[in-house]
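Our consortium's second objective concerns turning raw sequence data into structural hypotheses that experimental partners can test. To show how far this objective has progressed, the report includes one record in full. It was chosen at random from the queue rather than selected for favorable results. The single chain below, 125 residues long, was entered without modification.
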Amino acid sequence: MNRKPIHLQRSDWASDDCLWKGKLEGKDIGTGVTVLFYSTAEIGVGPAWHVHTYDEIFIVRAGRAVFTMGDEKIEATKGQILFGPANVPHKYSNLGPEPLEMIDIHVSDRWVQTELVDPELEEDR
């Protein structure tokens, strides 16, 4: 199969003019990966407990985050990469004090996410 390179502009994926926020689904450009760009300056904020049926790769562009993947907690900082296996519930949040910027690569041509009840929040009830 002879495919041509794809060259995208920020306007093709960004949902914010300044922050690294937005997404690009592989199905829209004929690839088998989807890329999400995430950014928050709020400490303690991040994606809620969820799961995917495919692997996910997390790249910490800036800041610090705490990841929960299954039963494991991992602190990650700028420049680190984490691999999340398919069907393992996970979440992450900004540890601060600086903003958190992430690139999440979903090994799927579309973003499919199932939100779950967070067992850590259930313990507080």
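The partners drew two points from this record. The chain has a mean pLDDT of 93. The CA atoms of residues 118 and 124 lie 10 Å apart. Both points have been shared with the crystallography group to help prioritize constructs.
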